[in-house]
Amino acid sequence: MDTVKKTAAELPPGNVPAARLEQVWKHYYLGKTEVPALKGISISIRQGDFAAIAGPSGSGKSTLLNLIGCIDIPSSGTVEVAGRITSALSDRQITRLRHKTVGFIFQSFNLMPVLNVFENIELPLLLSEKAPPKAERRAYAEYLLEQVGLADWRKHRPGELSGGQRQRVAIARALITRPKIVLADEPTANLDSKTGTAIIELMKKINSELSTTFIFSTHDSTIVEIADHILQLHDGEICQEVRKQQKQEQK
Predict the structure, then answer these.
(1) How confident is the prediction along the chain (251 residues), in pLDDT tens digits per residue?
(2) In sequence order, what E strands does the chain have?
């Protein structure tokens, strides 16, 4: 298990940020009207950060996550993920970068209802260009089941699970490809406060033990409080950026 743990998040070499944005603008169109979603965003998220992107609805949180996750492209500016400038990559290279480097956790879980817990977790590996050997992928899936506390639920389907259990499956599925970065879009939005707190504590534990970079969009004050890097968005701009060291100095 120690060997699995050491290889769980292969970090970029040296001091390369997990993600970096430089003067990024993103526009959408409503008919002929141009609507700016992000306005000149420049940020750097370090390897191993537990980062919260906070702000009201419409502030640009999800747009920012989509750019880091290579789901969308900027209107202008530079987006760099694990040392790769996304605008310089082909569609095939973008797909490969997204699959190997980024894991996604959704507020609606997005589990396959016809698959059991174990099969849902294993699925991303089966969809990869070159799936690992069966014994290797199953061993790592079992390890993640243990990490999220669902070893006894491996044969259950999503419809038999609580909201918190479904989110734990989603976390394990996001980690199965050993991503450098996990993006979580409002991961506690559909959970009660007690379950949401437990989910955040689990993700912080994984962040600490596996050195996986977590980036959240959130309204949840619990996530903001526990984060070591906080980016506050308002109307598509960074209005405040705080790192944990700075917070401690201010106390």
Answers:
(1) 343 333 334 444 457 899 999 999 999 999 989 999 999 999 999 999 999 999 999 999 999 999 999 999 999 999 999 999 999 999 999 999 998 899 999 888 999 999 999 999 999 998 887 788 999 999 999 999 998 999 999 999 999 999 999 999 999 999 999 899 999 998 888 888 888 888 888 889 889 988 899 999 998 888 898 999 999 999 999 999 999 874 444 44
(2) 19-30, 33-45, 50-54, 76-81, 84-85, 102-106, 181-185, 213-218, 229-234, 237-243
Angstrom distance (rounded) from CA 221 to CA 169 = 23
Phi, psi of 154 (to 5 degrees): -60, -30
d(CA 169, CA 171): 5
Phi-psi region of 82 (alpha: psi -120 to 50; beta: other; left: phi over 0): left
Residues 6+ apart with CB under 8 A from 99: 124, 127, 128, 129, 177
Own/partner contacts of 63-66, CB < 8 Å, gap of 24 or more, are: 63/26, 63/37, 63/38, 63/236, 64/21, 64/38, 64/217, 64/233, 65/183, 65/185, 65/215, 65/217
Q: What are phi and psi of 149, to 5 degrees?
A: 75, 30
Q: Which residues, 6+ apart, have CB-to-CB distance to 222 below 8 Å? A: 188, 193, 196, 197, 200
pTM above 0.70, yes or no: yes
